[in-house]
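ok new one. same drill as before - structure tokens go in, u give me an amino acid for every spot. 290 of them this time. try not to just spam alanines like last time pls lmao
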């Protein structure tokens, strides 16, 4: 059976991948947190690959604190680009299929339409620049790879926008939320399930049927952060007031319109993508039943 190494397994997506793994007869999962496997240590990564005969890597490890990255750019680039380049080189050396998770932050100024994987990138901050550099490393060094850009990840557990909204609502806070940044909220368990489906399709079929490259995955539909916050607030038992604000007023620095075009993902992998409102309803139900 194929061994699938999941790096950064303690993060939001890593946890979701472990939860959605279920019984998949093609794979033996190897979930590694940062304390177990440091992706900035190339020797450690190579030893793990050789010891376990890894055939697939799903890289969820990343430096994700966007605000702090402005002051810790060197650390951010070490994790998000240099370490990723090492992973890509090792994947090439050992014939491993590499899945690398990236972000809408690689884009910059809005085009007023959903962004395609081949659209020019122009990151607005250090985090986005580090993730773009990581993508470039993968493209340059690996043959069999799938870069999956996603955005606005949330779930009923962990540290994310949904759980923060729950905490604010329970305290009765009045929440100011930007209404001029547009994207697609993405339920992390939908993304995790889709990734496992892709790995399974590749394992069962011909790798050449699924071209390497950059793909986009978010839930279907479009919302502003205000729309998303309001939808969450109205679904919770402890409701809170949500007030719209402009990005300039709160000093946020990220793409204004980062809706991602998923047509190539749907076409190549033939995976149905849920609408964000349906997935939010599922998330709320699971949160209530915890």
């Amino acid at each position: 059976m194929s061994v699938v190494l999941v790096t950064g397994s303690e993060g939001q997506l890593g946890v979701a991948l472990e939860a959605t793994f279920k019984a998949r007869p093609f794979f033996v999962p190897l979930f590694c947190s940062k304390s177990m496997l440091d992706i900035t240590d190339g020797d450690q990564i190579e030893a793990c690959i050789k010891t376990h005969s890894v055939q697939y890597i799903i890289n969820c490890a990343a430096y994700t604190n966007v605000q702090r990255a402005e002051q810790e750019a060197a650390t951010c680039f070490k994790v998000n680009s240099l370490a990723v380049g090492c992973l890509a080189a090792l994947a090439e050396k050992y014939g491993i299929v590499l899945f690398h998770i990236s972000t809408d932050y690689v884009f910059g100024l809005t085009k007023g339409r959903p962004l395609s994987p081949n659209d020019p990138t122009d990151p607005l901050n250090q985090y986005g620049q580090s993730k773009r550099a990581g993508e470039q490393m993968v493209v340059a060094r690996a043959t069999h790879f799938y870069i999956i850009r996603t955005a606005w990840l949330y779930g009923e557990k962990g540290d994310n926008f949904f759980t923060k909204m729950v905490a604010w609502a329970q305290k009765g806070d009045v929440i100011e939320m930007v209404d001029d940044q547009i994207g697609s909220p993405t339920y992390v368990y939908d993304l995790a399930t889709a990734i496992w489906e892709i790995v399974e399709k590749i394992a069962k079929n011909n790798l050449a049927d699924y071209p390497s490259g950059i793909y986009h995955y978010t839930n279907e539909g479009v919302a502003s952060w205000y729309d998303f916050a309001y939808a969450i607030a109205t679904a919770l038992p402890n409701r809170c007031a949500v007030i719209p604000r402009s990005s300039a007023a709160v000093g946020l620095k990220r793409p204004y319109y980062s809706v991602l075009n998923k047509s190539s993902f749907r076409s190549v992998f033939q995976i149905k993508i849920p609408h964000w409102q349906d997935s939010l309803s599922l998330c709320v139900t699971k949160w209530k039943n915890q």
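The chain has a mean pLDDT of 93. and btw Residues 73-94 form the longest helix (22 residues).
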